[in-house]
Each structure stands twice: as C-alpha cells, then as structure tokens.
C-alpha cells in the first residue's frame, strides 16, 4: 500500500483485498475534503442473515439505528458508534424484540478509519473492534467465547437480573426469552457520497452463546448467525445530524433522517 498526505491526513491506497466490489453499485461521490466529515451522523444499517433451523432456513434481518461520529486525532480519522434501537424481522412465524437496554449496552471501542482514494471520491473502512455484550473480556480479540452460563466473565449488561442480555420471543400465543452472550464483530465498508451522506455495506462475523431461556427448551448453546453473503442485503446509510443530538432526539425524528 502507498501512503500519501492530503488534507492533513494519511491517505491509504486501499487494495482490492480491503475494499471489495460491494461498493461498485454505490453512487460516485463529489470531491470533498475528508476533514469535512467531522461531526455526527444518524446511523441506519440492516444486516441480513441465513440461519438453518429445525424446520427450515430462517432468513432474518437486524435493523439498527444509532449515531456515528467522526473526529480528527492528529493525522487519523476516528469513528465512534452509539447504538440506540434495533428491530428484527424474519420469514418464520417467530418475532423477537430487542430491548433498547440491550442495544445501548453495545459500546464498541473507538476505531481509526482507513481512508482510500477512490479516484472520484473517498472509500472508508471501519475495521472490526470485537466487543463483548453479556460477557466481560480482558482481551476481546484473543479470548475464547464462554461455553456456558457458569463462566465468571458472564455479565448482566442490560441490568434485568438475568445472565447476559435478554431477547424476547413471540410465536402466536407463545412467549419466551433468550439470555445471550455475544461478541460483536462488525466492520463498515463505506463510500462518501457528499459530506452529508455516506453509504456502504456492513460485514458481520459476530459470535453468540445462548446462556439460558424461558421456557427452558428454547436454550440450545452456541449459535453464530451467518450473514447473507450478498452484502448488498446488508446496507448502511449515514446522514449528517445537527450538533447536540442523542439517541432519544434522533429516534424521535428517525422518519426525517431515514424516510
């Protein structure tokens, strides 16, 4: 990779192994100064999964709303994510509800963003920052996931009195709960369309352990959702927000930012 300086930042000529053809269908950007990205953005992403089940393949989507902020730290562009609300849809008659206490307990580390000169605009790569939820890692990259609920690293991160974090299930008259420990492993592949609009795709390799359930027969151990390999089914959009927005104010106006 070649390094060069532009707009006061180190710009990396990203190779094909880093920025894939996933962005080839995205609109080309107008030329912008990368420093114009500093600020916060309303965040909307969809991650699509294909999960084999006993009675067929569950094709599901997790839709997440949040706030993404970019800042400068010396010659690096830094990204911070705050997650506000998540929703789940699937092709099976099972519905899950992810409480905001779960979603807001996901606190990824601040990530330096790799910047690629795409010729007509900028490509950005926000790398994985493995993050535990429902489990406390000393080293979230190198440590193994827990094997069961007796692991001392398990934590009640959503504060509801159950191990891990809780997802609520519904299928007809049946109601249930799953108690989960997860290692969130996601990366963003982005293209700057304008200083106020950034679009791209999400790469997700998150890991998950079902610690327990109510009723008990829902519990089935380790389960890693498999992302649909067609990354166009896992889009992300960032739209610039005015200063001062938090999760509550952004969610109250989400139809304005993501009509």
Structure notes:
The protein has helices spanning 100-103, 247-252, 254-257, and strands spanning 3-6, 9-12, 39-53, 56-73, 76-90, 95-97, 111-117, 122-126, 131-133, 165-171, 174-184, 186-194, 197-204, 207-214, 221-222, 235-240. The protein has one domain (3-13, 38-138, 151-244). An 8-stranded antiparallel barrel has the order 3-4-5-7-8-12-13-16. Strands 6, 9, 10, 11, 14 and 15 form a 6-stranded antiparallel β-sheet that branches. The protein contains 3 helices and 16 strands. Strand 1 (3-6) and strand 2 form a beta hairpin. The longest helix is centred in the C-terminal third of the chain and has 6 residues, at 247-252. It has 259 residues and is mainly beta.
What key attributes describe this structure?
259 residues; mainly beta; eight-stranded antiparallel β-barrel; 3 helices
Element layout with pairings:
Elements: E1 3-6, E2 9-12, E3 39-53, E4 56-73, E5 76-90, E6 95-97, H1 100-103, E7 111-117, E8 122-126, E9 131-133, E10 165-171, E11 174-184, E12 186-194, E13 197-204, E14 207-214, E15 221-222, E16 235-240, H2 247-252, H3 254-257
Unreliable stretches: 1-21
| Main sheet overview | 8 strands, antiparallel, barrel
Widest beta sheet: strand line-up: 3-4-5-7-8-12-13-16
Q: How many β strands by DSSP?
A: 16
The end-to-end distance, rounded to whole angstroms, is 39 Å
Tally of helical segments = 3
Question: What overall geometry do the principal axes of the alpha carbons give?
Answer: globular
Secondary structure category: mainly beta
Radius of gyration, CA atoms, in whole angstroms: 19 Å
């Amino acid at each position: 990779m070649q390094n060069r300086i532009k707009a006061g930042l180190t710009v990396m000529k990203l190779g094909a192994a880093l920025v894939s053809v996933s962005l080839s269908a995205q609109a080309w950007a107008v030329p912008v100064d990368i420093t114009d990205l500093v600020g916060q953005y309303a965040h909307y992403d969809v991650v699509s999964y294909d999960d084999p089940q006993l009675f067929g393949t569950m094709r599901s989507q997790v839709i997440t709303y949040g706030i993404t902020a970019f800042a400068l730290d010396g010659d690096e562009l830094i990204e911070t994510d705050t997650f506000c609300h998540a929703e789940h849809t699937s092709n099976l008659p099972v519905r899950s509800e992810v409480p905001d206490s779960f979603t807001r307990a996901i606190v990824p580390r601040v990530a330096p963003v790799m910047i690629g000169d795409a010729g007509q605009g900028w490509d950005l790569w926000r790398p994985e920052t493995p993050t535990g939820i429902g489990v406390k890692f000393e080293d979230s990259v190198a440590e193994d996931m827990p094997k069961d609920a007796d692991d001392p690293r398990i934590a009640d991160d959503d504060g509801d009195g159950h191990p891990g974090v809780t997802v609520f299930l519904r299928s007809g008259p049946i109601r249930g709960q799953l108690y989960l420990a997860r290692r969130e492993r996601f990366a963003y592949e982005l293209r700057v369309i304008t200083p106020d609009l950034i679009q791209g795709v999400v790469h997700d390799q998150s890991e998950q352990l079902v610690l327990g359930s109510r009723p008990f027969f829902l519990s089935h151990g380790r389960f890693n959702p498999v992302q649909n390999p067609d990354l166009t089914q896992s889009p992300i959009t960032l739209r610039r927000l005015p200063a001062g927005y938090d999760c509550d104010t952004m969610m109250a106006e989400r139809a304005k930012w993501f009509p």
